[in-house]
Fold these 2 entries.
Entry 1:
Amino acid sequence: MGFFTEHLNLIAQIIGFCAMAVAIIMYQNNKHKNILMLMVLCCTLWCVHFGLLGHWTAVAMNGLNVVRSAVFCFRDKKWVGSKLVPAAFILLSAILTVVTYENLWSIVPLAASVFAVISTWQTDPKKLRYLTIPVCICWFTYNTVNGSWAGMANELFAFTSIIVAIVRYDVMKKEGKTN
């Protein structure tokens, strides 16, 4: 147990870097359902990471993101297709932020969560990619303030991965340069 407590931050950062690897792969998919399934794994790892660091608003937002991504995988089902579903996730994000509020920086994961709800609600992977950019900006800011090195690196890599995917699937495809 002594090793664990002495190296808690290191263990948290390693788990965060594992989540980052999943995030990089995630945006290179061009199927909505695959992106969301990988997002479930990614957010689960972030829950563990932020839990070890003691940042409970981030844990709550990522925990909610696990549920949201899993639910949105079934968007084609009638019970998920209602516009009340994303509204409910935004409301839950606000409630969880109030419950886990640490300081003013707790609002940043809330903003990220709202953008994430809007982006993952999209069925078009192109819209999902573009609307995920503000999510990266919010989380990068939060991670910088709270010393999550893995989180900062993740957002830089995720942002880069999104840009690569935009070029690959949106720009080059538009220009007729992809297979």
Entry 2:
Amino acid sequence: MLFINSHTKIFSPLSNEQSGDIQSVLVRTPATVANMVCGFDILGFAVEEPYDTMQLNKTNQKGLTIIHEDNYGLSCDPSQNVAGVALLSLLEEANLKNTGLELRIHKQIKPGSGVGSSAASAAGAVVAANVLLQRNYQNDDLVRFAMNGEKLASGVKHADNIAPCIYGGVTLIRSIFPLDIISLPSPDLFVTIVHPQIEVRTSDARSILKQNVQLRDAIRQWGNIGGLVAGLMKSDHALIGRSLEDVLIEPVRSILIPGFDAVKKKSKEAGALGGGISGSGPSIFMLSSEYQTALHVEQEMKAIYSAMSLDHHTYVTRICSKGIRVTIQ
């Protein structure tokens, strides 16, 4: 078996024998944290855990078959499945619509959790197909295909989960049309995530956002985005922490998440640099400079939701610099 990462050029390491006899590809697709508080729709990073696994196989039967090996009740109709829609868009452009493929999906990233479940499915499918079908699409092409899955999930083509999932690390989406993605340095920070067991649909979380903002708020937000990018470039943890402030989106979306204000307050008191809503929620993330601080933050999160008698899952992880991992079988 051969292991590669989605951010590498995938064909140069393959021998002629390997490249001509690929029948199955397994991918491990990471969860992602979109927005990074102040960077709505333009910033995101991948994390080591949780992650989905997906296997794409060639078959003798024409067309795409999807099999879910999880209990989330997601559609297996390719036209109604985010992975299917993304993969079909690649097949259409490659003029391979009649290729026989079977996609087996085992999700550990719960749909509606706010840590890029739909992005993991869409991105994993196109990365796997790019290898299995021996296409030479670049990362920005793969993002473009995968965004079709995000459109099915939320009604909008956005890349703040897709891009870090494929590229790895932290990404900045300077533009969607045309697509312009910049990889940023990944800070040496620990990530604590709590997922209260409620669902916040991305489409619903978008529908409540204000369409007009005050100029003074926009200026403050621009300052935070610039400060956050500068903090990442300089590996300045204090500047990163000061810049993790959102005056536009978080005040509106946080009302959908029970315990949000308490989690943020207690996490900072425990030593976290800062954090906020992961994507559209309900998950909340916090960044810490030290592992023990991240564990302390986790305990504070657990205490808040336990006191509310609200089921929750937590993760203490790190930023995943490699993106999707591919195994050629």
